[in-house]
Amino acid sequence: MSDTNQTTQAQETGLSLNTDLGRELLQASIDDYVATLDKLSPECNTPDDQARLLKHMVEGKQLINLIESERKKITSELDALKQKWMNAQRKFQKPIQDAMAPFVAAVEQYNREQIRLRQQAEAMQQQATQQQIQQTGEADWLAPAVPVVARPKGVQMRWNYEVEDFSKVPDDFKMLNSGAVSRVCGPDASVPGIRFFKEPVTTIRA
Asked: What stretch or stretches form a coiled coil here (predicted)?
């Protein structure tokens, strides 16, 4: 059912999200609908059963669409206003971000280099300790440690990842691109490891 039809139905029945009376009428309609379904058996074994259940499903879909239509009346203006101010926010922020960009890039490059030097120094210190243990059987704790580069101010170390060889990634960590599969799904589709088939889908048109 179109938004125009939903609006007409709401006006005729008084159902609304925007007024106390409208919400009360809407809740009463929902309660009546749910109570009706609670009395019915969900079994569908004959054409008559199917027609009867579809009738109730259409009624439910109409209620759902009506509620959505009423919500849109309230939120469409808010959405437009929100979009307006988000655009204004981006407009004012962009020159600041553009001016900052080369400085941000310079600081990030410096930070990466300092972290690399820090990790290199730590590795050298660990290697020296291992060599001492291999030679004497114990670490020389009095030996001067390789100075470690201080971590740059404002830098936190967080775990991240990159795929080096996808073929070696365990299946548990792989994700099927369902969007890409759906786009090719059809009578001529062929993807290794995927079976394409038709199945019945009930369409409820309110």
From this structure: 64-127
List, for residues 124-161, the tens digit of each pLDDT value: 888 887 887 777 766 555 555 555 667 777 778 777 77
69 is in which domain, residue-wise?
20-87
* AA identity, residue 180: A
Q: Which two tokens stand for residue 33?
A: 């609908």
What pLDDT score does 155 carry?
A: 79
> How far apart (Å, rounded) are the C-alpha atoms in residues 175 and 179?
11
Query: Which of 87, 112, 135 delimits the end of a domain?
Result: 87
From 122, 120, 124, 101, select the one nearest 112 (Cα to Cα): 120
What SS3 class is residue 155? coil
Contact 12, 31 (CB under 8 A): no
**Last residue of some domain: 69, 87, 105?**
87
Rounded alpha-carbon distances, angstroms, from residue 105 to 94, 110, 111, 112: 16, 9, 10, 11
Report the predicted TM-score, pTM, of the whole model to 2 decimal places.
Answer: 0.52
- What is the structure's pLDDT at 13? 62
Number of domains present in the structure of the chain: 2
